[in-house]
Amino acid sequence: MVTLLGISGSLRKGSLNTALLRAAANLPADGYRLETAGIQGIPLYDGDLEEADGIPVAVTALKEKIIAADGVILFTPEYNNGIPGAFKNTIDWLSRPSSDTAKVFGGKAFALVGASPGNFGTLLSQNAWLSVLHTLGCRTFSEKRLMVSRAHTLFDGDGKLTDEATAKRLSDLLAAFAKFAMR
């Protein structure tokens, strides 16, 4: 069975990306298992902090989840037409020490998904992530993309995905990515 890890890159309690990740985790899975993670508890990267205290526990725990997964899906918000600072900060921590980069990212399958209240989904954020993932040596999935626009209209008051077309697109992406992750 393929193990996928979905990481929400938002700290917000009512995050659309966290809601989309929860929706993904609740979809029927055929041949894969989707685990979920977030970026809460990860401090701002500071080389002096790393030198004095080492790698934070939250970073180490997330590293272990990534290493154990066959593929990772970044559920990314888009802030000011780019990568959210807190999410990029998390990836920066995960690449420390630099001797861990290949173990955590090297050759690992990564996919990008995102939800936004705007009209373009998370197109610019997802495009910006590509150079970061390339630099880290990841295998990026490009067969399907999911950029959910006007996402605030697709979830109910409890954060449950109510749009069947989006659920189908998400399900199709997960199935295709699981196959990609095993190649």
Please, could you describe this protein's structure?
The chain has 183 residues and is α/β, with parallel strands linked by helices. It has a single domain, classed as Rossmann fold, CATH 3.40.50.360. The chain contains seven helices and six strands, in the order βαβααβααβαββα. It has helices spanning 16-25, 47-53, 57-68, 85-94, 101-104, 123-135, 164-182, and strands spanning 2-8, 32-37, 71-75, 109-115, 139-140, 146-148. The model has no long low-confidence stretch (mean pLDDT 96).
Secondary-structure element order, N to C: EHEHHEHHEHEEH
Question: What form results from the Cα inertia axes?
Answer: globular
- The CATH architecture category equals 3-Layer(aba) Sandwich
Query: What is the CATH T-level topology?
Result: Rossmann fold
Number of domains: 1
Distance between the termini: 13 Å
Specify the CATH homologous superfamily: Flavodoxin domain
**Count, helices:** 7
